[in-house]
Every structure is written in structure tokens, then in C-alpha cells.
Amino acid sequence: MKVLKFGGTSMGTVDSLYQIQSILISDKTQKFVVCSAMSGITDQLINLAKAVKQKNKKNALKYIDLIASRHFNVIDALIESLNFRILLKNEVLRTLDGVLDLFMQDYSKAIEYQVITSGEILITRIFSSYLNLTGIPNIHLDAKDFMRVDSLENPDINEVYRRLNNILTSQNNTDIFITQGFICKNHKNEISHLKRGGSDYTASIIGAAVDAEEIQIWTDIDGLHNNDPRFVNSTYPIPEISFEEASELAFFGAKILHPETVLPAIQKNIPILIKNTFKPYSKGTVISEKVNITGLKAIAAEDNTMMLKIKSERILTNHQYIKAVFDIFDEYSIAPKLVNISNTMISVIINKLEHLKKITVALNKFSVVTVHKDCTIITVVGKSITNDKNFCKIFESKSLCPLKMINYEGNSKVSLVVDSRQKVTVLRSLNERLFQEYYEAIAFS
Ligand SMILES: Nc1ncnc2c1ncn2[C@@H]1O[C@H](COP(=O)(O)OP(=O)(O)O)[C@@H](O)[C@H]1O
Ligand SMILES: N[C@@H](CC(=O)OP(=O)(O)O)C(=O)O
Fold this sequence. Notes:
It is an enzyme of class 2 (transferase). By secondary structure, the chain is α/β, with parallel strands linked by helices. It has helices at 14-26, 41-53, 57-78, 82-101, 109-116, 118-133, 157-169, 199-209, 243-251, 262-268, 319-331, 356-364, 423-443, and strands at residues 2-6, 31-35, 139-140, 176-180, 183-185, 191-193, 214-219, 240-242, 272-276, 285-288, 298-312, 338-341, 345-350, 367-381, 405-409, 413-419. The protein contains 13 helices and 16 strands. The relative contact order is 0.10.
């Protein structure tokens, strides 16, 4: 069994859905297909949820209209039978009109999650029907029946397996299962989700649960690149990368992968393949345990972080002081992304921006706290990076100044924290210093 995940851009147009259809029929292996919502739909659903929260029916109707017509266009283009077109359009309307009923209820997180996860439900239903009608038999599964995830960081794969196994054993002869990414249920049986971009994670959780031979992430680019192609020219796809390296890159902001995606694959040692839906013949990136190539691999950047510099007023940073500081982060369920400790100062980088006021008030009771907002973590990743001949060039770039923090770990990564306004300059400068020669070698080979 293979798990194939198609992201929002791959699900986004009629042509891209045709493209997916041909990918599905080109490989006869039994498949689990995980689909995101059409690109842009989750953003519109978030706006719709806000309108529900504000009891603003006019805005709600505006977003319902936009979302419905995008799906109607797909139905009109894909489905020949008039009866089926009517049936599917009615389903779209039923799902979206259901949102209007929520106006009667007190707004809650459960309501918000129900609204913002409906994009995946709409498009999987349409796409699955289209495939069935064109002679590609498949079974449409509701992810809410088996994606039971309570802890985002530590999902209970066995529970997902148990629920899925019951479904799959009764459908032994089916080659294609289609389901929604992103959406899940919690232990209270309420609808929840795996955070933005979470369909990647759905795919790897399912992959681990069914012991898949491969997890494929189909997107709009030809693999995991050595730097963020949205900000840097002359980036290139990395043919192979280890689980650890990919996991660090995802954790430190490489948008192509949801941060937790690699962990279930590591647990079951399942390779992850990143492929381009629009160029299925290009090789893409293989993420696996086998890769043992050392040296600098790639750079990732994470915005919207902040640095708290916590200075002890009276004592040096002894163990009780350190515990008191981190107990406060724990109280607000915040896991710092980076920490540096010196004898008088603890510097903490966080990416959860809520509760800042309460945290600083609590810390200020026994420390002096300064907050630096708008920070970006830039992380250079690679196995045994210090052995790379270009390693020292990381620190030669003048664009790094003023540098807020350096964090080096396990000979596998260096994180540099800079003001967000420096981000693009630093990414470009590092790319030139560290990777230009590799790029030229690839470009001219
Ligand atoms: N290191 C990287 N390698 C490849 N793509 C990256 C990288 N960093 C950021 N990206 C961006 O991630 C995008 C793909 O992720 P995403 O938009 O979530 O895709 P999807 O719609 O398939 O889920 C690419 O189009 C690219 O702009
Ligand atoms: N639709 C959700 C989940 C997702 O994974 O999307 P994508 O595959 O387009 O990143 C989102 O927009 O966050």
C-alpha cells in the first residue's frame, strides 16, 4: 500500500485534478489518497468562521457563495451526468448551509474547526465521484471515522490503525481509498485539525498506521529545495535527504512539509517521496533512513517568532531559577523553539504569540524581561556540517549583523536568529556562499 497526498495547489483546478487522475492510474499499487482542500478554500473558510463568530450573516453568505461557486465550477467541468451534477451541488450546499445553522449556537472552537475543515470534505466527495464515474473505482472514506488525534506531537498511531483496519478489512478488494487531510477528531469526539498544512501529517500518520511501503507528498514543486524558492533564485531540488535533516528543516519552517510529518515515517521507517504533480516525471526528493551523505544540505526560515531575554535580577542562573523560568512557559503550553543560557541570562525563542503579556508579567516578578518581536530563525541543516568546507562561510556574511542568537546543535544544524527585515538578504547571501557552486554544477551538468 502507498499513501499519496495531494496538496491544495494540486487539488486547485480542473486541470490539476485531471493530472492527479493520470498519476493515480499510472501506478497499479493499492493506494490511500489524502487530499487537501482546493488552494485558497481553507483561507476563505477561516473568514467564514470569523463571520459566524461575529454573527455577521451578510459576510457569511458572501463567503458561502464564493466557496460554493468554486466547487460548482469543478462539478460542471468534471461531471457529465446532469443528475450527478445536481446531487453533488446539493451536497455542497447542504454542507455550506449547515454553517448557517451554527449562527443559532454559542460560538466555540468545535464550531470553528467544523467550518474550516469542510473544504477537504467538499472536494474529496466531488473527486471521488468523478473517478468512480470515469471507471476508476475507489472508496471515499470519512477521515473523522479513523483520524483520532489527541496530541499533535504524539499521535496514537495504534488507535488510528485499529479504526482503519476495521474499515479496510471489509474493503479488501479496493485499490484506491480517498480521504481528507487536515481533519481529525479528538478524544471527546469533537472535530479538530492538524494545524495549517496538516494534510502532510495526515498522510504520514496513515502511512505509519497501515505500514505503507511509501508516503508520497505531491505538490507544486519538484522536491525539497536547498533554500526557500519564494525568496531565493537559483535553488535546486535535493535528490536525497535523511529523515533527521528533513525533520529539522520542517521543524524550522520549510513550508513544503508540515513540521511533524517526518516523525511517524521515522517510527515505521517508511520513505517519503516529494513529487511535483505538474511534472510527475521529475525525480523529486526521497527522504529516508538510508541517506548518509554528509555536509551542508539546505536552509529553512521561520518567521513570526520572538525572543525573550530573561535576566536574573539577583542570582546567577542556577537550577532553581532555570526551573522557575521554564515552569512559566509550561503553564502556557509553550515549547520554546530555541534556548541559550549564560550565567546571567536566558534567551528564549518562541513562535506562540498568545499569552505574551501574562508570561512577561509572571517572569518580571523575579527577572527583567526584554521582548524582541519580529524575529526570524534561519537554520542551516546537514549531517556533520562542520566537516563541510563551506561551514565557516555561514558566519562570514555581513548581512547577519546585528545577529540576535546563534544556536548550534549535534553537528547537524546551526540556527541564526535575525530581525525579520533581514531575512531575505540573509537567505540570499547564505545561498550564494554555501550553495552557489553546487547550483552551477547542477545547472551546467
Ligand atoms: N525548501 C523548500 N523546498 C521546496 N518548496 C519550498 C521550500 N520552502 C518553501 N517552499 C514552498 O512550499 C510550496 C509547497 O508547499 P505548499 O504550498 O504547502 O504545497 P501544497 O499546496 O502542495 O500543500 C512550494 O511551492 C514552495 O514555494
Ligand atoms: N487545507 C489545509 C490543510 C493542508 O494541508 O493544506 P495544503 O496541503 O494546501 O498545505 C490548509 O490550507 O492548511
